[in-house]
Amino acid sequence: GESVGLHLPTLSVQEGDNSIINCAYSNSASDYFIWYKQESGKGPQFIIDIRSNMDKRQGQRVTVLLNKTVKHLSLQIAATQPGDSAVYFCAENHGLAWGKLQFGAGTQVVVTP
Amino acid sequence: NAGVTQTPKFRVLKTGQSMTLLCAQDMNHEYMYWYRQDPGMGLRLIHYSVGEGTTAKGEVPDGYNVSRLKKQNFLLGLESAAPSQTSVYFCASRDDWALHFGNGTRLTVT
User: Fold this and answer.
1) Cα–Cα distance, A25 to A93 (Å, whole number)
2) Centroid of chain to Cα B73
3) What is the pLDDT of residue A104?
4) Are B19 and B106 a contacting pair, CB within 8 Å?
5) Gyration radius of chain A's alpha carbons
6) 3-class secondary-structure state, position A72
7) Which of A2, B10, B13, B15 is most buried, with most CB under 10 Å away?
8) What sign does the CA torsion over B60, A30, B30, B93 have?
9) CA dist., res. B90 & res. B105, Å (int)
10) Under an 8 Å CB criterion, which residues of A touch B?
11) Phi and psi at residue A50, to the nearest 5°
12) A10-14 and A107-112 as β-strands: parallel, antiparallel, unpaired?
């Protein structure tokens, strides 16, 4: 069936380096994608989103890239900081009943000094 | 502005017991959701509501019931808890752009 998944379960990054977190999706009908950050003991926190009519969107220190040809989504974090250590989820919406998002399992990002 | 508040934060139940998880939001959002999160899996939608007095089934609704009597509150009930319902439960409400999550309820069923 259709699914959203992440390539790497754990990503170790040195403080100050850039992080890239990848996500593959298989539903070509998905029209909206979101990245969430989840710190230990807390709920997911919205980071950035992108609609399917866009290829790139930038926020503060974060950039999301969407490649519809290969159904791939990535989150880039510039100058990774210790506070960026968390689990990052991608989620897709199929355009039906907004909010019924399909979430990936998550990638654990560990920032080392 | 508290956002989305879930109570309780932790609970241990014995098989067969019942309980209600409370979610409250102060953002006047119409849409509210209940998810469960299990190790190695993404968040899975249990039930959701598109407005006061309405509820609908999500991906994994069996064993759960919900009620939305007031716009700001969304209750998740377990009538007869089972060990398979051991999980972390997240409530969320939605504005125009994104889901806003609470900090979760960790439930253990023994």
Assistant:
1) 11
2) 10
3) 85
4) no
5) 13
6) strand
7) B13
8) positive
9) 7
10) 4, 34, 41-46, 49, 89, 91, 97-106
11) -155, 140
12) parallel
Six-digit token string for A28: 């070509």
Tokens read off for A94: 């199929």
* Interface mutation target, options B99, B103, B105, chain A, most CBs of A under 10 Å: B99
| Cβ B29 vs Cβ A99: under 8 Å | no
Q: Quick check: B99 and B76 in contact, CB under 8 A?
A: no
**Whether B4 contacts B101, CB under 8 Å:** yes
Residues B28-69 have pLDDT tens digits of 999 999 999 998 778 999 999 999 999 999 989 999 999 999
Structure tokens, B5: 């508040």
pLDDT in tens, A50-86: 999 999 999 999 999 999 999 999 999 999 999 999 9
- Of A11, A8, A6, A19, give the one whose Cα is nearest residue A81: A19
Strand (E) or helix (H) holding B90: strand B87-94
Cα→Cα distances A29→A112, B31, B94, Å: 38, 23, 22
Give the Cα separation of A35 and B33 in Å (integer): 18
d(CA A95, CA A98): 6
**Cβ of B100 and A46 within 8 Å?**
yes
